[in-house]
Amino acid sequence: METRIKFTKKALEALPIPPDGQRMVYHDTETPGLSLRVSSTGTKTFSVLRRPKGGKPERITLGKYPGLPIKAASKRAKEFIAELAQGNSVAAQQRRKTTEQITLEAVIADYLKARKNLKPRTISDMRQAMAETCLDWLNKPIALIKPDMVARRHRERGEKSPARANLAMRYLRALFNFAMAKYTDDEGSPLLTINPVKKLSETRAWYRVDRRQTLIKSHELAPWFQAVGNIPGADIRDYLLTVLFTGLRREEALNLKWALVDLQERTLTVLNPKNHRDHSLPVSDYLLELLTRRKEASVSEYVFTDPQGRRISNFRYAQASIEKASGIKFCIHDLRRTFATVAESLDIPAYALKRLLNHADGADVTAGYIVPNVERLRGPMQKITDYLLKAGGLKESAQVVELTQYKAGATPS
After folding, report:
1. What Å distances lie between residue 195 and 123, 146, 148, CA to CA?
2. Kind and range of the H or E element at 126?
3. 212-233 in b/e burial notation, b at 16+ Cβ within 10 A?
4. What residue spans define the domains of the chain?
5. What is the DSSP letter of 140?
6. Could you give the 3-state DSSP secondary structure of residue 125?
7. Contact 216, 328 (CB under 8 A)
8. How far is residue 101's CA from residue 89's CA, in Å, rounded to a whole number?
9. By the 8 A CB rule, do 90 and 80 touch?
10. Cα separation of the two ends of the chain
């Protein structure tokens, strides 16, 4: 209900409290546009309602009574009405002012809330990159982050790690693009109009970071296999061998569950991988023996756990032991690169190789018409396994060629 009264201290203090879930609105007879809303909790709030020239009606909250006295509320209402009479949207000005106070941390929270399909690893990586490079900016209004600040911070971070400096600024660029799209006025125009990270492209300041090209070469496989076989405990050993013999990514193998391993059908499936396309692979003879042994002793839903059912996570000591014994330095992703390079050297058909690695099709229209069939990958998978075993001295010798780095997108000759 709405009523017109003269706003006086006595009149406002005598106003009744409406029933639960309802509210009363009173309009001042002395100051046109000034209103007071009374809620069922007894809260009394001043506001002004007017239509700007050529715009939509706007209600601007002024403050709560008695914290905001009647005289002050009347004065503010007149100021807002004068602004509206000139065609200025007070609500838009308030939104712009509010937006200018939004911190980088708040933008990150809004971004992560909006991007529902981001993987936990990506979220963790973004937060880590922001903490490494922009920690002192997290509580700073995003509107105060200027191009020169970005260029200077990128340069400073790049002295320690060019790759991490680039990564942090790519995340920051995405956050600004998101903020420019999310925070808009009534007409959809962005309240933030400049992405300061753009300066790095305009000045060509991005660091050139060559993609890592390391892998385990053919002549290194034998000492590597021997060193892996000698590490204490089977859990990390089996994990490393599975990554090598499947080409799975680090997290894909770590998150593998028994429910997605079919030992009878001899397949395994990775759900929602990096490209969000479920990935099924055939299990080779060698891997079938390894997984069968693990299954018999397993006490967890996950494939790679210790005897107590705890998921493995710390590879540092095992990796250091393997590197010391074999003289071969490697990271876990090198095993995927080795798998891919072996496949390419064996003239595995291009589409089969792409399916084995679960690479995105991108602009490849033809690939969109091919329905993946795990059985068609069984022969290529076994062929790759046989090569690795022979090169590693675990199977009768055969012709082994020196590996050169496989590059994603390359077509086997």
Report:
1. 21, 8, 12
2. helix 120-134
3. eeebbbbebbebbbebbeebee
4. 2-88, 104-202, 218-391
5. S
6. helix
7. yes
8. 19
9. yes
10. 81
Nearest to 207 by CA among 137, 133, 275: 133
The topology under which CATH files domain 2-88 is Double Stranded RNA Binding Domain (3.30.160)
Name the pTM for this structure: 0.59
pLDDT digits (tens, 9 = 90+) for 226-250: 999 999 889 999 999 999 999 999 9
Residue 126 amino acid letter:
M
Gap between the Cα atoms of 208 and 266, Å rounded: 43
Whose CA is closest to 46, among 93, 88, 7, 96? 7
Q: What tokens appear for 190 in the block?
A: 């962005």
Rounded-to-integer distance, Cα 106 and Cα 236, Å: 40
User: Other C-beta atoms within 10 Å of 50: how many?
Assistant: 19
Residue entry with tokens 């007894």: 42
Phi-psi region of 138 (alpha: psi -120 to 50; beta: other; left: phi over 0): alpha
Token reading at 371: 């329905």
Element (H, E) at 76: helix 70-85
**Torsion of the alpha carbons at 137, 142, 146 and 147, rounded to the nearest 10:** 90
Asked if domains 2-88 and 218-391 share a fold, the reply is no
CA dist., res. 268 & res. 257, Å (int): 9
**What is the rounded distance in angstroms from the CA atom of residue 304 to the CA atom of residue 190?**
48
Query: pLDDT tens-digit profile of 164-206?
Result: 999 999 999 999 999 988 887 655 667 788 899 999 999 999 9
State pLDDT tens for residues 29-43. Answer: 999 889 999 999 999
Written as one letter, the residue type at 98 is T
What is d(CA 107, CA 115) in angstroms, rounded to the nearest whole number? 12
DSSP 28: E
- If DSSP codes are grouped into helix, strand and coil, which group holds residue 156? helix
As given in the structure block, the two tokens for residue 384 are 């790759």
Cα(24)–Cα(37) distance, rounded to whole angstroms? 6
Helical packing angle, 350-357 and 378-391, nearest 10°: 80
* CATH, range 218-391: 1.10.443.10
Local structure of 78: helix, strand or coil: helix
| HEC assignment per residue over 289-323 | HHHHHHHHHCCCCECCECCCCCECCCCHHHHHHHH
Distance between CA 171 and CA 382 in Å, rounded?
A: 40
